[in-house]
Amino acid sequence: MEKILIIGNGFDLAHGLPTKYEHFLDFCRLYLGFTRNGTRTTAITEESMRQQLDRKANAGDLDHVHSAVTAALSDVLTDNRTATHTAFAKVSAEFLQLVKDNSWIAYFQKRRRRLGGNWIDFETEISRVLAAFSDASQDPLLTDNTEENRLAASELYDHFSQNYPAPDFFYRYYFPSNTRQPVFSSSFENWWKKNRGTGFVSEELIAHLNDLIRALEIYLSVIVGNIRKEDAGNQIPEITEHNFNYVLSFNYTSTFRKIYKKQYPQICFIHGRAETDKNEKTCNLVLGIHENSLADAPPEIGDAVLPFQKFYQRIYKGTDDNYLDWLDYIHSMKERQFELHIFGHSLDITDKEVLEKFILNDNVHTKIYYYREDENDKTEMGRQIRNLIHIIGRDQLIRKTGGSSRTIEFIPLKPQKA
Fold first, then answer.
1. What is the pTM of this model?
2. 3-state SS string over the chain?
3. Which of 151-160, 258-267, 406-415 has the lowest mean pLDDT?
């Protein structure tokens, strides 16, 4: 039986790699905290960075940073391999320029501080930002606005208006007075079309998003990518006990190739692969929202936000699409059974158009692995079930998880040895 493995970020995390978005934000904050002659306008030397990292650690100034992030940076700075130092030196100045005035990163940092453990991810926040602009363009007075939306809007204004100022009425809406209603001399919709229009989205916000994506590529390829194999956790039994023919990776890293060298499957990096030698124009990482996130937006807004959507980015950036050939093969072999293993993927709706094409085949038996704190813990499984409903629908989920046509099962992960 031929086997397919689909992996998400949980796969990298299971190997102890700091690949969460919050790890990247921690690294940005840590890197921007390094200075050269009292400023941070130019990149500093590795030696100076190493000394400052040691001083911060000794002074207890790193408590806000995930230990895995500081360990990864320390690993790179003390690595005796020439290639590692060459790669780091090459992109250090570029990384600084990408992140130091990035509005998206500043906005994410503020949202994360405010929401704490309830903070989710970049994609959710990007969708939220674009939805706010879309709502404002349709209802300039935002009569249906809630207190939570007002607070969210004020956060948006804080960061985006610094570089892209709007008329005073825009400011007064976002900071409404309880004693009087703001007087609008013109509507937001008119300002939107006359002054910035959809260009506000398609040019300014996309430029900052592309900078963020390239910065993320540098972090993953230079910092995470140079963590030595022995530091990347043990091999996972649920992976080593199978020989996979195909691996569909939603990750940007090459963790599978790096750790499971005895397996030689075809690998598809559907969202691109992080590489040091690329640049902002050649970076092909996909980071965006689901195609239906702004389904109710007016046409001019819908067209403007296309570059933020994953399917558009995959086409525009030319990411791997050989998974489509695998699907054609599966469809042509209806009498043959295939086994699909999903490991470390949240089954988020942003990947619906890809995941459903595999899961809904009647000749594909799907095994979805979930993490648990103890043998009775099904919290993660519950989240996967809820997400799967959005992927394939309630009726299909019921049919495929029970009865004689059962093709989906949830498998708890075995505890890893220390």
1. 0.83
2. CEEEEEECHHHHHHCCCCCCHHHHHHHHHHHHCCCECCECCCCCCHHHHHHHHHHHHHCCCCCCCCHHHHHHHHHHHCCCCHHHHHHHHHHHHHHHHHHCCCHHHHHHHHHHHHHHHHCCCHHHHHHHHHHHHHHHHHCCCCCCCCHHHHHHHHHHHHHHHHHCCCCHHHHHHHCCCCCCCCCCCCCHHHHHHHHHCCHHHHHHHHHHHHHHHHHHHHHHHHHHHHCCHHHCCCCCHHHHCCCCCEEEECCCCCHHHHHCCCCCCEEEECCCCCCCCCCCCCCCCCCCECCCCCCCCCHHHHHHCHHHEHHHHHHHHCCCCCHHHHHHHHHHCCCCCEEEEEECCCCCHHHHHHHHHHHCCCCEEEEEEECCCCCCCCHHHHHHHHHHHHHHCHHHHHHHCCCCCCCEEEEECCCCCC
3. 151-160
